Each structure stands twice: as structure tokens, then as C-alpha cells.
Amino acid sequence: MKNIFGVLLLSMVQPILAQTKLEKAITNLENNYDQEKVYLLTDKAQYAAGDKIWFKSFVFDGYNRSPLSTTLFVELYSADKKLIDWKTILLTNGEGSGDFQLKEDLPEQVYFVRAYTPYMTNFNEDFQMVKTIPVYNPNSPESLVISKSTDWSAKAFPEGGTFISGMPTKFAVRLSSDTTLPENWTGKVIDTQNPNTPITTFKSFDKNVAAFTITPTLGKKYQVVIQDNAGKTKTADLPQVADSGLHLEVNSSKDGIKYTLKGVNLKQQLQNYKVIGTINNHLAYKANIKQINNEASSLIPTKISNGANGVLQLTIFDDQDNLVAQRLCFIKPNNLKIEKAEIIGQSIKQTPRSFNSIDLSPESYFKNYTVLVNEDDGSNKPEEDNILSALWLTGDFTSKIDSPAQYFSKNANSEALDALLISENWKRFDWNSVLNGTVPAIKNNSQKFLSYRIKPIKNNALIINSNVTLVLRLGKESPTINPFKTDQNGYVYLNNLSFDDPLEVSVFANSDNNKEANADNLFVTAEPLVTPITFTGNFPSTKYKLVKASGNKTLPPTISRAINTQKNTQKIENAEVEIEQVKLVGKKKDPKEELDKELSSGMFSSVNSTIFDFVNENQYAAGFTNILDWLQGKAAGLTFQRNSSGANVPYIRGQQAKLYLDEVPTDPTMVANLSINNIAMVKILKGAGLVGDAVAIYTMRGNMQSKVKEKETKQTNNSSIIKGYDKPSEFLVEMIDENAKVENDTRETLYWNPNLFDSDYVPPRIKFFNNDSAKQYKVLIISFDEDDNILYDQQIFK
Q1: Does the predicted model carry a pTM greater than 0.70?
Q2: Mind giving me the DSSP string for 296-340?
């Protein structure tokens, strides 16, 4: 779908030769209104506290994956807009992945995931993606329930925006609600002077919309009366009938979009009226009517979008370039251009804990896949939203649409989609503003990857216009030496960096004799230039509400299964520890054990612990100024989350762990100021006796000396640790063996791979183990080829 449209000029009309106000507006639109949108796929629709949320993000510029941004911020909020966690995601060809680990004590409520690129913050915040995530907790005093309220409102929208006497006009009736819309509804159109005799009646296409056609008479007032399946009735006014204007009628077919214009009581008739068609804020069609006539029609062929699907905004301007009518329509609604996965082999079983595989063709044009496999319960419940509805609909419209995925399903009703688009306006730009020459204020330009501003301070003074040396060390890699010169403000800039391991930046300033660099009395800070932006809007309304929990709290079946899965995971981790302990039986105590015995008291002694010895072993920690930063990824089950102060807080199996310094309770801020060179041992305890889950840090005593080499410990006060992109966790495909003592495997997500790729013509293989109950599997496969054609395939395998 690259270069999705080509501008088409009607042969029946002549292109405008001189650049008019409208021509300038189109140039302004194409040069300044590129805008992105985000779709976020999660592995499940709802979660239990303590679960991990796996997500895959897709960023689009129009209907193509966006080349504008390489960075995406994904944030997790509570219902009261408290930021719980956030991730900085690397985008490659508009795609990126990550995960959130939910705490076990997270209160039961609706949470929200917000996703946006820095470039998107230049435009209306309403277009940023906000996804609703219900989270359940059996220990929470409140329970989430579906609201039974069906309070709704209705509006009627004339096609093209005009309602002219004598012109048969198609209307869309649109319902909206902060909670839940009625399942079905009916309506009638009345003349307010004769309300007991309906002019016409209609039935809803779905929860969102219905349509009818009426020919109005000047001077009459019309209303629609809507009644839902529960008997609730509401009335909405139709617009006032006009005696003149432009009537627009549109019909979409497989051949294209046919439009008909009819003028009523126009002084110049339709002469010099302009018809403009835009796709994603770019000109796709233009016509200038030269004939003196009150009627004109034409067919816009699908080649304006190279045969691809999407929303066309059709706008009519008069001879003075005033907007007089507009209409949204979908290109080829009954012929969606969606590819399916080419499967060349499969081995699917229903046996509990059996191995299953699905092989994709290595000869396909599609090379990188996002794959999700869940147990399917056989309910055939339709999707509420998906990547198709986000790409073609909700990513560009801010109004709430119930179950938007229905409009792109196998049995989709194209009349319903057309009525929905009649009731919508394209709000990514306003034609009147564009005609006036208004240009968006671009404060955050699109830039590649991450950038940082380094500020060295020597003897409490800025180092201005001076030569400095930056030593950069990424993770455990060898350091690199880089000469720089500070600017007139004393800054050094590191631009366009892409990394996901901690980056240590050390700065050395040239000495007075300019022959050698040193770090005496030097302090350095690193400021990220690509940063998240505070959310100022309101979260969308949801169908959920919180009520006081009853004595016997009832959880959804999927949540009960998720909680059991968490318990199984803990059993597996404990089994792995026990196996390791068996292997150690009979061995002589080593220096690490002697150190543990010397430093640990009885309360902190446990066989279920992981020990890091800084006295007898070189832990390669010299590149870290904070022991908690160093601990990331070092122990199974140990994770970290940033608190409001930016310090890392340890969590073990999703539960916040206690933190001790020499067996005295402490907090992350105190530990952050502790030099790693003074640490003798770090001990990770998992459910150990009276201590429970804990991270215990012990400092040097007596004649203890660090194993770290002297040259590694020299001059550590002139360095700063920079965090880059958040590295996604690995979804492990493991068979649950008998040693784990798992009696009932209840996993819902059986396979998650946001980047399954074709390598050297080896067939990409989807491989997973069954749980104990699944008889069939829901397999979702998403991919894009080099031309951004979309592959979307969701199948049930038995």
C-alpha cells in the first residue's frame, strides 16, 4: 500500500491553472498534516492482579506503517490517572513490543494503557491510543461488574450535511452512551404537526446506527422517535429544512464511489464548484465543474487508492472556495484487501500438555509475523476491536464506536458502515483552518531513536566551549572513548542512540596543560531529550463499574484460571530451586557459603536464596552506580518497577519485596546512594521464613576487599547511567513436567511471539504446549509485506 493514492482529475472538467486559495490549502494540508495513529494488541482482554500484560504495538502514518517515529511511549494508568508504569519501546518499521508486570496487590478496577509517539503530541491528544484494561483481584474490597445502565442519546445526520426542500435525503441515526448501548432499537420519522402518522420507519443495523430516507417540505419540522428493546423512548430533531443549497448523494461499489451533486436555487448553479477527495490528509481526487448546470455526477475509480481500502473524505466547495457539503465514504467496503497466512503444515492435538506446531510458508512475501495463540472456549464471541478496525476506523475517529471490528468481519454489513461514516466527521484537520493558512505548531519533531544532553560540571562550574572525553560503556561491553567539545552552554549531545542495556557515560575534562584528561572534582548529569508527555485529557467511559464486594466474591472464569496459573508458575519456580538444591547436596562449602554464614543471621539464612558474592567473585559491577540497577535481570523471578522518585523498587514474583541493608529495613533511595565498592554480598530471598520475599544487601566488614579490579573502581563519581529502550521480556515456550507438581494447567495464553520471522528459508514455526483443558485453539497471525499490504488471519484449530 505504499503511495496509496494518485491524484485523479476528472476528464469532464478542467484543472485549475492558477493557484487559488483552495490550491494553497491543499498544499498546506499535504506538507504539514502528516499524523500517526497506534494500535496496541494485548494477549488477553482482561487480567488478574499479578499477571503480565504482553503487548505488540503498530504505528501507522495513514494506512502504512509509519516511517516517522522510532520511539513509542506506552503508559499504564489507574482510573484516577495515577501513572503506575511506563515503557519506552523501540519501533522498527512501525512495530514494537513490550510487557507490563502487574503487582499482586493491584486494586481491582479498570486500568488504562496509553500509547503515543513523541510526534503525535503535536496534535490533538484525543487521537492518542487509550486502551481499557479490566484487572481483577480476589482480595480487593470492590468488584468490577458490567453496568446495566442503558442511558443513551441519539442524533440524526443528513448525508452531506444539507437538508433541502424537495430533495430525497438519506439520514444516519447514531446512538451514543457512556456505558452500554441497547442491543437493538427501532425508530420512526414524524412531522411535528402530525405526530401520530409516521412518515417512515426504520430498524437499527447494529447497536450504533440505523438509516432512513426522507423528502422534506419547506416550513415543516421533522423529528425521529427511537425506542430501544427495553421500551425506552427518546426524540431527536432533524435539521431545519433549507430552501436552497447543494445536495450530495454518494454510493460505493466495487468499481468505485459514485457521487451526484444537485443544486437548488443557486445563483451561479454549479459552475466553478470544486469536488475534492482526500485520503489521510492527502489529495486523491480533484474536479472543477465548468458547465452551467444544476446537476453533475461522476464515478471516482478505486485506482485513486491503488485498489486499497480506506476512508475517502469527499468535500464540495463553491465558486468562492467556501465549504458547502462533505461526506465520508469507505473505498471497496465489500472487497477488503486482506491477505491470509500460507500454512504448509500443522500438528494439532487435544491431549493435555501435548506439543503443537503450525508451519508457515518460507516462500511467502510476508517475513515477520506477530502470533498469538489462546485457548478457545467455543463461544464464537466476536472480537470487539482488532488491527483492521484500528487501521481503517477508530484510529482516525475519536467518538466511541461499539464493537468496531464488526464492520470488517466476514459477515459485515456495508450499509451499516456507510451509515456510521455519514454520522462522523474527519477531525484530523478543519478545512476552514487549512484554507486560512493555519499550520500545526510542531514542537516535537520526528527524530531517530533517543537523544541525551550531557552536562559536565567541574569545580561547581560549567565547562563551556571546552574539549572533553566521553567514555561510553554499554552493559558489559568494552568502553569506547569519544572526544567532544562542549557548546556555549556547557552541553554535549548524544543523538540517535538505540540501546536497551544500561549505558554508563563517564566524562573526563582536559587538564590545564591540555595534555591529559582527568576527572578530578567532575560531576556529570545526563538528560533525556525524548521524554513522555503528561496526559491532560480524560479516559474514555467504560461499561464497567465498581461495587462493594460481597462475602463470596465471584470472579470471571478466565480470572480464576489466571490466578491458578500464577500459583502454578510459583510451583514451577520452587521446583527448579529444589532441583538445584539436590544437586548441591554433599558438596563442600565454598567461599560464597562461608561469606553468607559470616554475614547472615539466622532469620536471613535460607536454602531458597540467590547469593551474589562481591568479595570472592568479580561481579563486573564497576559500570553501575546503583546496585539495584545492576541487579536487573540477574535473578529469576526478580523484577523492578520505578516509583514516583524514579528509583527502582524490587519485586519478586510480582509482589513488592522487602529491602534490607545489613539486615535493617531500608528504602531504594538509601540504597541508590550506596557505593557498589562498599558492598560485600547481595542476597535474594524468595518466601524465606520470617523475612519472606526480600533483597538483602550487606556491606564490607573488617579486612574485606572487593574483587573488582582497582582500575575498574577508580574514579566513579564522574559517571552517569543512562536508561535506553525497555527490553521486552521473553515468552517462554516450556513443557510443564512432573517435577513441577502442577495439577491443573490453566494457561489462557499458550503462545506469544511478537516477532516470528523467516530465516534462511526455514519455515517459521508456531510451537506451543497445550494446557489441561483446551480442545481447540484461537490462532491470530498479523504481518505486513514490504509494500505494507496487511496479512490478518484468525483461525480456530482443533
Answers
A1: yes
A2: EEEEEEGGGGTT--EEEEEEEE-TTS-EEEEEEEEESTTS---B-
